[in-house]
Amino acid sequence: MKKVLFWMVVSFCILSANSSFEPVLSSKYNEKQAYIGKKLFFDKRLSTTENYSCETCHNLYWNLSGTNSSYTSQKGVINPPSVLNSALNFLFFTDGRVRSLKDQVKESINSRNELNSNKDEIVKKVKSIGEYGILFNDAYSDGINYENIVGALAEFEKAVLSIDSPFDEYLAGNDDSINAEAKKGFELFNKIGCVACHNGRNLGGNLMQNVGLKDASESRRLMRVPSLRNVARTAPYLSSGEMSDLKEVIGFVSYHQLIHTLSSEELEQIYKFLLTLNGRRPRILNE
Length: 287
Prior knowledge:
This protein is mainly α. 41% of the residues lie in helices and 3% in strands.
């Protein structure tokens, strides 16, 4: 009975989710404010100890993953999510406790596991750096204040969308942008129920789901479904970062979450589809 109910729910989600796919072919942001946000994102002086920045955990240059795999080797540390395309979400953090981009930035500034700063301290530091005074006065009518610092970081996150992937082109009507095997993978992605959780503009990141994949007896809890954009670049996988091979993860999640054992051919097809989700390098990173 439980299995029948499960597939009824999946079928309903598939029917409603199929229409929610839409291409992401452009990004809109304030150029001057995003440029300030980029400088802040890479500035280690903003942290309490001045030895790490936002980019420390959310790498944007080594492999265009938007995350840092080295942190998952530390016991008890959650696999840092990719910052790329995060602006397409409306749920933030693993437990989805934050519902706006600016509130996510504020929590990251204050969290002892991130910048470990506070409102007064970060404003004081930014004001002490002459270059920021010039930049903020040019981009904001009221210069440097906490809300503008938060706004600039949020604007930078809007700028780091890895847009115009082959799949985006396919959704926009270019039938030749992905090959036949990837198309079969997309059909299978819909058919077996992956789409029930990974849908919308970000192919995930927009709902909470029960997890407890590793052990059926493990206590299950609601966690934010991750985006699949750039998934081939964002190893390791799962919240614990315990898997590094994408094909292994595809088979693992299909079996434990969808009660479906993929054949080697099916696994390869879904893998080829996921490769089409790699987008272009954000323009702001080239500047």
